[in-house]
Amino acid sequence: MKKLILDDLNRINVDEFKSATKTPIVVVLDDIRSLHNIGSVFRTSDAFLIEKIYLCGITATPPNKEIHKTALGATESVDWVYAENVMDVVQQLKAESVQVYAVEQVENSVMLNQFEVHAQTKYALVFGNEVKGVQQAVVNASDGVIEIPQLGTKHSLNVSVSAGIVIWDFFQKLNALQDSK
């Protein structure tokens, strides 16, 4: 097997990304402290054609040298908006008929592997602060809460890892729905 180089990968450019049909997912990052986590979520969002990222609260915004280190240009391809108050974003998305799901460990959460996506539905995935998680008010306002099953001794994952796992899961489930048509 030959390792592929960039030219072999046939990636789209930023203009093609902007005009491509997007995966019906928006990501909401609330009070994310680490610039590298923010950049990583941008890069993952680029990889799976995510529609938009909302950066809320203390979450830093591009342009930023530290975000760029992990985003590697994805801040140019993925649309993003800054909003001071995450609850305003949640209410706006719900008013637009977007299904809002917090990713958190709570009573009566749905395990990610058991969560069913639906065709013709746009989803918002809310990821919270690295220490405090998703705010209780956001959990209360969400249409539901998704939890990533974990079997080891640790009780949490890095927020950018969590975002990658959940985005990938939604992406492949949504594509499976499209393929079954």
**β-strand amount:** 15-25%
Structural domains: how many: 1
Strand order, main sheet: write it out.
Answer: 3-2-1-6-4-7-5
Radius of gyration: 16 Å
Protein name: RNA methyltransferase
InterPro entries: Alpha/beta_knot_MTases (IPR029028), rRNA_MeTrfase_TrmH (IPR004441), SpoU_MeTrfase (IPR001537), tRNA_m1G_MTases_N (IPR029026)
Organism: Flavobacterium agricola
Pfam families: SpoU_methylase
Structure commentary:
With 181 residues, the chain is α/β, with parallel strands linked by helices. The chain has one domain: SPOUT methyltransferase, trefoil knot domain (Alpha/beta knot, 3-Layer(aba) Sandwich), CATH 3.40.1280. It is 37% helix and 20% strand. The chain contains 7 helices and 7 strands; from the N terminus they run H-E-H-E-H-H-E-H-E-E-E-H-E-H. The chain has helices at 14-19, 35-47, 65-71, 74-77, 86-95, 136-141, 159-179; strands at 23-30, 50-56, 79-83, 99-103, 110-111, 123-127, 144-147. The chain has a 7-stranded parallel β-sheet, sandwiched between helices. Helix 2 (35-47) packs parallel to helix 3 and helix 2 runs parallel beside helix 7. It is globular and about 45 Å long. One of its GO terms (biological process) is methylation. GO terms for molecular function: methyltransferase activity. Residues 25-167 form the tRNA/rRNA methyltransferase SpoU type domain. Pfam families: SpoU_methylase (PF00588). InterPro entries: Alpha/beta_knot_MTases, rRNA_MeTrfase_TrmH, SpoU_MeTrfase, tRNA_m1G_MTases_N.
